[in-house]
Write the structure tokens for this entry.
Amino acid sequence: MASNSEIKDSRLAPVSLSSVDVAFSQPEDRVVKLIAVGLKEASTDSPSFRASVNYMNSEIRSYQILMKKTIDHLKRFIAACAALQGISSDFQTIFSSVGQNSLVNRDIAKTCIERTSQDMDQVLGFINGALVSKKEPIQNLLNLDGDFAAYFELRRAFEGIQAKYDSYLDKFVAQPKTLDPTTAREDAQQLFELRKQYIHISLSIWISITKLRHKVSSALVELCDNLRNSSEQSRKLAEFLGLEESSIKIERARYFMDLQARSHKNLIKDLQSARRTSEESVVNICTPSNDLDSYLPATINMAHLTDTDVEQYEKHGWVFLKSKRINSKEVVWAKRWLFIKGDLFGFLSISTSGTYVEESDKIGILLANVRYKPEEDRKFCFEIKTLQTEVTIQVETLGELKSWLSVFHTVKTAALQRNSTISMSRYEPMLDLFALEPVVEKDLELVNLPSTKPENAQLLLNKSLPSLKVDIDFSAPLVTELTNLACLSHLYLTSPKVPSAFTANVWGFVNWGLYYAIKNRHDTIETATKMHSSTLNSINLRYPASYPIELRQLDLQVRSLFESYVGTDEFVLVAFKAFWSANSKQELFCHLYVTESHIYVYTTNCGLVSISLFKLTNFLYVDSVQKANYDLLRLYTVSGVSTKMKLCLEPGNLIKDQVNYLISLKKSTVSKPLETIMDELTKIKHVHSKFEPKVPSSVPLAVPQDSEGEKPIVTIASSADMDTNVKLNYNDDMHLIWIQKYDLAAKALFHVLVGDQSFLLQSMLPFAQLSVDTGTQHTVWRCDSQQKLTRIIWSPTMELLSAEQRIESMLNNKYYNFTQSTPYLYLPFGSAGRLIIRFIIFNTDSRSSKLLVYYKVMRNTNILELFSSFFFRQVILFKIEDLHKHLLSAIQNLANENRKIASAIKLYGPITKFDADELTEEEVRFEKDVKHIKMEFLFNLVLQKLNLEFDKLLHVATKLLINALFSTYKNFQLHWLLVLSLGISLLLNVYFSGKTTYEYWIEHNTEKYVNSLVQKPTLMKRMISVRDIQDLAHNTSAQLSYNSTESQCFLEFRKQTSTAENSSPTQSKIQSRLVEFGLQRNELLTEIGILNAAERAYLTSEWKRWVFDEHRNCELVRAKYPQRYDEQLSRYCDSAKTEMDYISHSLL
């Protein structure tokens, strides 16, 4: 089946079939395009599809046998548990009766027997309680028998229709050239109907396999959940055996299986819709032509075979290869999948076992000559000839023949223009297991050339690689027998950007994910220009020795999915599985892989897959919130968008810290080697694995001190790191001086105040300037074992500007509690005191919050401490108003943002922290520091205060002046006010009266003049006579010559201006212009004639109406008013009667 011969997309054959779009929750972001890879492969009947369904069939059969063994074993287990329950119920009764006999020593033996009986009863009861299942554990497995039976029945139908289709296709292409075209068209129609049946059942069996995989997975997860229970005995036994973490993971697996079931239920509708679209596409593509010439090779015009309306640079499809059997003279036509892409062409084929895909050599397009071969016995054949081989290929229809020849011609022309080096080489399969196994003689010419690979490479690839017993362990888009080996090959090889066995055993005949996610279907020509020969024939020892095996497996998954789009110096460092909240109604299961530069996302749901690529620099930071059944991960981007993900099995705090570390590392100007990055990620993992709570809890985690000599790892803090104790009232220890509500979420306000790029809080320092001082610096937040974050701020230019900031409590977007402390300040007139300001932010709703500000002064006992307290209080009152202005300005800046939290993080920075209990050098110096305040600083502070007070005084004075004027107006004597008003009113009345009189006489005179015009109508005329028209038409110029009849010069000019019909074809410019004038004159005269005719018709119609009306009026006057019918009126009526008779006679 040459499936893509007439695909409407002129450039990319593989994208003709539909896919499913799932939008992000944020409208401005891109869409996730879910691709039904199996449907696309099934609709084209590709070798990957055939190999995959054959391999899955063998896997399902073997799994059914294994399932039966599992059910038998579970039945024995249930019987054993029931027997144990019976034994435990009878044990105490039987064993206690043994001690009741008189033969037993009542003093010692009876006591021992009674205690043993009671203890064994508790032990057996405990065991029975732990082994009791929630429900019948094997019922779901038994229910799968019906699903297996339905699949096998569909499989038998599939095999029957597939055999019938293949047989009929072989007969159809073997038709002789002399066959009657009408018969050939009827056979093509029968083949088309059979093809529709085959494609329909191919799509059905793929969807059946998809549903069966989901049902089997759900049944197994439910089985594991049923085998354990939530009883007290089971909990204690798990705690005793150290299985709490395993129990939590099983509970979460069950929760996420339920999520996947809901997602499956929603997406199955989209899958069915994609199936219908695929079938419709196949019908449109494969409908046979009704033109009889399409079935007659004799009508082929060889000169126009390569002509095409569009340029196509890529093509894939089934063809028939002419060859002899090996060691035989019998000629056969072997079915092969031919492709041309990226200046190369080659063949794919199904293995002899039918369970994986093989490949031939890839041959450069400039090494081959392609021509139509009319001398062949079969229809629609063409020849590909190189120095090493010559193959004859047959396609199914004339349209396919033209398409293949056109693509070869177009690609070859483009390669010549670019002087492509790839198109002048031949590339053998790098792995022998994927090389085409020869079935016919021509296969030997396609793969059995002398190898160019060195001997050590042959040993490495073909002996070491297949012997590796490593399971890549992920759900590939498409599964064959060699899918795992194709993924393992990326240990040393890179998948090229052209079809290969590596891609065919993982994705299909093309990498569908790259077409939609990265290439966007617009760079097929660029594939050849950007592709390097190193991806086709080079072997790379990719991983350093320090790169662990578990990360290598994850990195192989990414390279199998994204292929050559993953950089050679890029390695997976963090990976996790999650449910991605793509929108409010759908959650997509996905694998996420984080490298030094990117986040790679691979989603697989209900047979629909997608890959996405995001730069790390697009993210601000990651936050984590622990829930009962999952950890919620929220990723904030620089565009203001936040994305939610539910983590499946990995701890959210660990993933959050590791990803935040990589984000901060990417944004840093200092690069680190791979070994250092992995060591620091391992330290983060060690911290979380050692002190992670065994059950979800809000209790803060204990973080150990860094070992001596180790540099702390910088990550980003979040509310999950903090104590969640909420306290608002500190009046017993501090003084409340400010409470204010702001139209900003609590989390956003928090980042506005203490973000890494925020300088607002520094304005609260006693000797800071009124404007925000961006010259201050600060250390990274240090997180101690009590989960308190501390940093020091200072100014390089002003010694007094230093403070310690400490975050004590955070509850995500609900509550934040932090302090700012100055060093000890020694006043000239008092004791040394430390000013401590506490800021509390708590949410009032999702869009607003309140800010509470407390303060206190820690001071030594001194006789002047009262004055010091008064001084600090005045400073705080003075500075809090300044902070309020800055906050209002910040809120105004964020007013136009749709997502204010993410925008606040983007503008004011995240909270970057590192874990350590040891004080930093800056903190040690701060604790010992005492600042002596000079009088000039006090004087400067007083001036700032006076300046602010003067502004306030000016504002109050202006307000008082306005109030005084208004009061004066109110208290003015009323009668004088009335007199003034009357005087003004009199003047206005006189003015408007005069104006009204003037306007009246103007209007009166105008009306009188108009009436005089009405009494005697005036008609303006301009008569144009026929002579005038003739003069205008003929007199085109003045007298040109002194003697127009005898001047030889003028007579010659008249000849040149002649426009007679028999004039020369090469007439002069003058003649042409005169002809134009004549044509325009003709048009104008024609328009005048039309206008005159219209005028005559209109006047005739009006004249007839006038005569009829006047004649009727005359008759009416003669009948009703004879006394007024005088002689003058009689003459008028007689003339009207005469005109009436004339008109009637004219009509007759």
Notes: Residues 728-932 form a domain with the Alpha-D-Glucose-1,6-Bisphosphate; Chain A, domain 4 fold (CATH 3.30.530.20). The first strand starts at residue 20 and ends at 23. The mean pLDDT is 79. The two ends are 81 Å apart (CA to CA).
